[in-house]
Amino acid sequence: MEPAPAAPGPRLGDSRGAERAAASSSLNPTGAEAQPRRRAPAVAAVLPAGGSGERMGVPTPKQFCPILERPLISYTLQALERVCWIKDIVVAVTGENMDTMKGIIQKYQHQRISLVEAGVTRHRSIFNGLKALAEDQPDSNLSKPEVVIIHDAVRPFVEEDVLLKVVTAAKEHGAAGAIRPLVSTVISPSADGCLDHSLERARHRASEMPQAFLFDVIYEAYQQCSDYDLEFGTECLQLALKYGHINAKLVEGSPDLWKVTYKRDLYAAESIIKERISQYICIVMDTKEDENHVGHHLEEILKNELNHVKVTSGALCPPCRDLEQIILEQCYNYVCVNVMSFDFEETRRLLNMLKESNLSVLYPVVVISVYFLDYKSVPFDQKMENLMQIRDYAKEVKKRNILLCGLLIYYPQDEQKLQASLRQGATIIATLIKERNSGLVGQLLVA
Amino acid sequence: MEPAPAAPGPRLGDSRGAERAAASSSLNPTGAEAQPRRRAPAVAAVLPAGGSGERMGVPTPKQFCPILERPLISYTLQALERVCWIKDIVVAVTGENMDTMKGIIQKYQHQRISLVEAGVTRHRSIFNGLKALAEDQPDSNLSKPEVVIIHDAVRPFVEEDVLLKVVTAAKEHGAAGAIRPLVSTVISPSADGCLDHSLERARHRASEMPQAFLFDVIYEAYQQCSDYDLEFGTECLQLALKYGHINAKLVEGSPDLWKVTYKRDLYAAESIIKERISQYICIVMDTKEDENHVGHHLEEILKNELNHVKVTSGALCPPCRDLEQIILEQCYNYVCVNVMSFDFEETRRLLNMLKESNLSVLYPVVVISVYFLDYKSVPFDQKMENLMQIRDYAKEVKKRNILLCGLLIYYPQDEQKLQASLRQGATIIATLIKERNSGLVGQLLVA
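Above: the input entities. Below: the structure tokens describing the complete assembly.
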């Protein structure tokens, strides 16, 4: 069978990539005719997602557990679909979760996804995914790839780098998989529940995901394998070895490849995601020219206090090109500095830009509207009543996954006290961005 | 050598425990004379804590990484020392961390801890700990235990239950260790980095901690073992097998036994700890008698919204016995309801009780001081100026690890609107308790 027509190929990096591709053709373990082609392989991915989540101790299957209100599997799909050379992504879900999965694909605007029905075991689900990719399925839009990636729905942090490594190695060796060092020693128990022997930790590895295979290798292995394999097996690399006689290439993966298994893993995943989307903060200034603008002071202090975070500034003066660019760069944190006004005009313009951009479809966007006041000379008067409207704005934009808070920063004449106020303000901004908790939207905090 | 004199023994549960103790005496694998004694064994614990934390990707060794500002190892020590039948806890730390460790013991008031110098490997550190427990150390206050627990400094969630299981099994079998099912398939690579074979997941287990040994068994094993074992070994059960010919009893552990290894594990540990200390909330009422008291409404709503959380109420009317009892029960969350007043008298009395109790030594205590106002008829006036003093109180008690916030809840005449206000207040209270972030102390939030 001919491989599928050319697809956007992996970025193999010019000549070195071409060499490898040529080398892998000549090493093609399927025995297919070695052609002197230099194009990258057509790649698809299969995700078994039929699990029940029993180890999690929660009723929802773990791939559907929410992280920042979005199901875990959506993060994994996002990680795969942003890799442009993965042409098709086939997800195997149980019949009862089919509608849930369709809803997720629609809500989070996932692309290139096909759904198949999961089997009762992991291997059967993968087999169903492979069958859908095989050319002999008449009712399918999918075409048979040269290489297929198999990944877990519950490993959301897979990077393009490791995907490329396993695909490249699979093209050369027929099969490849990510591995990690063992964290615990592995032992073999005897029948009476005592230690029989322990394995030398340095000589063993944990087999992780992603794995990749020449499609024909793994599809033939699944076609040949026994019911026992399909029922009790856990390891695709083992099938390639047993039925295709292929010793898979092992590729060292990063710690982030771990599998979300227990409730604590959900906590860890949430913290990692929160940390990642907190690494870029945009200070939106209501005026651009003045270098002594207090917004610039705040920007400097944020840069000092959050020294791992990229802090930039943009202005709302039309045509707002820099701000549009920052939104395109997926900045999820905005500090809208209002020096001259005590109203929501600037904030509303920012919120409208964010709403139009659809940025908050995947992650909650934090917007903090900052005002300056001298508490003694401007007590809680009409201006404050204006600001209390923030509750209504916050309620409205929360529906769009935008978390709006207000922050009042004292602006004393004394330079040292002002610095202290601004530092306190920066601490509150950092907390709101880090926690990203919808329970505090609409609050007016005071620094 | 005679076992050490009787120590507070494990709660073996009356007759069944006595039977086991008798049985284990007769099965004593050290060959010591089987005595018809029914007392529980003297138990000590050894914690190797000499690791460098390289896998964590941070400069601080992982056992000293802070969780809610307290080092990880302090949580592990707390888990061991609350088990009254563990007589001594020997911690092996490197020379350069000796002072850090002494500071931790003093600051968090740890008891029954002895420090020894760590070796360059895990096995050498454990051996140093065992030497300190052996009776032939003339300058030691420690006495040789019958059973020794070996645990990791970076497994903070060990429960008394599993400690008792491994100790009981060690007394019977000579050695015992906690195990867990494998999360990933384990494979064996060939020399050229390809798959040689994969292990059947169901036939293997991950060896976790705690483990327990008859002291003589493990001490003799360490005395006999080779330099190679001490340098490259990772598994104490393996030493007991190799040198003591003892097949350790394997005890199924809970998922919480996992080892904090990567940065994500610190995130997970922090979330677990935050969740645990958020399970008990005390509503402190300023008046007890009135059943229509709005504090009771708030209590009901909190009970409904947080249905896994124990919500109770206490009063500050002297002699405050119920409140003292609640503090003794280690409640870390207080909602101080002020209906009649707009000052901090009640809150200050609560804060003083908390300070005297020393409750906040181990965990940050959240105190939320709640006031009710009708925004329209009581605009931000003198009363508000009073309440702004919360910033100063919050700053002061934060030094004592108490996180104080204020919460203003609208109190409209309309019953339905009041319910909405109270629900909003409950959401904010739940957020502050869950996040436990010191960045928001001193804020006056509005529901």
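Note for the figure: Confidence is low (pLDDT under 50) at residues 1-38 of chain B.
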